[in-house]
Amino acid sequence: MQDMPEIRPGQSIELLKELHILTRDGKMNQDSRRKLKQVYHLYQFIEPLLRELDQDGQTLRLVDHGAGKSYLGFILYDLFFKNRSRDGHIFGIETRDELVERSRALAERLGFPGMSFLNLSVADSIVSDQLPARIDVVTALHACDTATDDAIRFALQKDARFIVLVPCCQAEVAAVLRKNKSKILAKNVLTELWRHPMHTREFGSQLTNVLRCLQLEAHGYQVSVTELVGWEHSMKNELIIATRKGQARRQPTQRLQELLSELGLEEMGERFFAPQAGS
Ligand SMILES: C[S@@+](CC[C@H](N)C(=O)[O-])C[C@H]1O[C@@H](n2cnc3c(N)ncnc32)[C@H](O)[C@@H]1O
Q1: Residues 38-59: pLDDT tens digits?
Q2: Residue 162 to residue 95: CA distance in whole angstroms
Q3: 3-state DSSP call for residue 183?
Q4: What pTM was estimated for this model as a whole?
Q5: Residue of the nearest CA to atom 8 in ligand 1?
Q6: Which residues touch 254 (CB under 8 Å, ≥6 apart)?
Q7: Which domains does the chain have, with CATH numbers?
Q8: Mind listing the pLDDT tens digit for each residue in 64-105?
Q9: What is the arrangement of strands in the sheet containing 137-141, beginning at the earlier edge strand?
Q10: Is the distance from the beta carbon of residue 100 to the nearest atom of ligand 1 less than 6 Å?
Q11: Whose CA is nearest to atom 27 of ligand 1?
Q12: Could you give the CA distance from residue 229 to residue 42 in angstroms, rounded to a whole number?
């Protein structure tokens, strides 16, 4: 095999082949190098969170929503979970049965016993008894449309310590902005921000992430928003990391409600549900 400094000691070569980072004969090209760099870039944000949790000495449980081929889950397991002395488990949630089956088979082949894949929607996973009551980390990488919002709801329900999101497009907020546009056009100069159809889509998408951040802050999370540099799969590369800090907070709750009301989005209150403003 070529000399490949990018490959870390103990990393599964079989997994890298399955992810098409290495060719079947173990070679790596420039594209693969870039892909691996991107994976490490995301890993570099998540690893410190896992290390922090590791110090608690409990079983470490991570749920990856909209797992797809479980790219992220497998990399996390291979680089971190596999080498821990304590128990840890990664659950992949995915609605496409063939992907669930494929991931189960791959985990079996690689000998990764701490991985499970459940054929569930994110919304259904909130109430599923196939998942434990306590979950430490919730990830959702390009989970389609409102699946990211369901993942947030899941994380809040499970009181997760960390939530890592790279949202996909979300069409729901833009649709409501569009529907209510004519009603508030004359009343509010801010409607200029989304008067043109293309702006409605773009503004809706950005606003969705702003509302998600406020929702998380309202529930007592500290939120950071950065860019997932060079993530080739999508133009959507906003990385939101939320860390549970304490109790529900009044100020972001009020801000969330004011923003929804100012933009004519009161009906979205259920989607971005917040604790009571007085709490
Ligand atoms: C764009 S792919 C991303 C896959 C993976 N997270 C990644 O980044 O490589 C989104 C995946 O989410 C799944 N998905 C979409 N909506 C879902 C939902 N409500 N519940 C569970 N899975 C969902 C799709 O089937 C698809 O596999």
Answers
A1: 778 889 999 999 999 998 888 8
A2: 23
A3: helix
A4: 0.93
A5: 141
A6: 277
A7: 8-167 (3.40.50.150), 169-218+243-266 (no CATH)
A8: 999 999 989 999 999 999 988 778 999 999 999 999 999 999
A9: 115-119, 88-94, 60-65, 137-141, 162-166, 238-244, 221-227
A10: no
A11: 68
A12: 9
